[in-house]
Amino acid sequence: MSAVRTRRLGFTLIELLVVIAIIAILIALLLPAVQQAREAARRTQCRNNLKQLGLAMHNYHDIYQMFPPGGLWTDQNSNGTVLGEDVDVGHWAWGTFLLPQIDQAPLYNRMQPGNRTPLAVYNFDRELLRTPLAAFRCPSDNGAPLCDTDRDLDFLGTTANDELIARSNYVGSNDDNDVPDFGAMGANDNTGMFRIAGVVRMRDVVDGTSNTFAIGERDSLDIGPIDHDAAVIYAVELRADADDNDSMEGVLASADRPLNHRVDDGQENEVFSSYHTGGGHFLMGDGSVRFISENISWHDTIRADQAGAQLFQLLIHRADNKPVGEF
Fold first, then answer.
1. pLDDT at position 156, please?
2. CA atoms 201, 206, 210, 215: torsion sign
3. What is the pTM of this model?
4. Which of 18, 82, 88, 176 is the most exposed place for a label (fewest CB within 10 A)?
């Protein structure tokens, strides 16, 4: 009589463990590739954001025969009454002036920057200053839509008025040395594409628009003592405390420190910086977007119009008469 053979159903424990191990290895191999693909997509979107801002800048120039100011000084209220320098009503930033050129004309019209000060908007329509815009955000920044506390609006110098406003990851190129305060602008300040309370026209970019930075990236990394604070879109206010970012670093940047500066020296939140490994995206004056290596040559004391100036300073200065070639 032959023995009855039973049919085995399912997997043995060893077989199941082997399958699990193979799946784990495949996931470990595929995950970095997926992350790299996602970062590549985010970098592409970041480039597109800057490209759109570049088109908006040129459209603005076509209409007004000048590029938007980096920040517009104002010491009047909505009725035109002069308040005096000791009362801060805020300064509209370049991002506000570009709103009609990026399909945000309704927001611009509600703010009425030609008739109202940032303080007036803050007092009566503060939700407008909190409106996030994807065009001003790097997709690699997964932070909150509002700015850090170091970029809040603190009108009249009272901490009770601290107000967070919409965050940006893009700052205008202002100076080859240092971003000045409104009250400390000298003859050599405002050498970039965005002047404070001033005008830059196409003819003023003597070195050529393809050789001059217009807008660069600013991250909001917070690593130990390093806090880049990102930037803001619409407005800044002039603070009396020199340790409290009392100038335009919330919307402008300079070559005072190198790209992706990671040293806690009081300047780390005033620089061009990026979430992207190895460098950052820059919009050039001609509307093209370049990825600039963080190893670009830089000098901490020499200005672009002086002997020994390095490439980073030369690309920020619009009229040093030292146009660069391929870089």
1. 52
2. negative
3. 0.83
4. 82
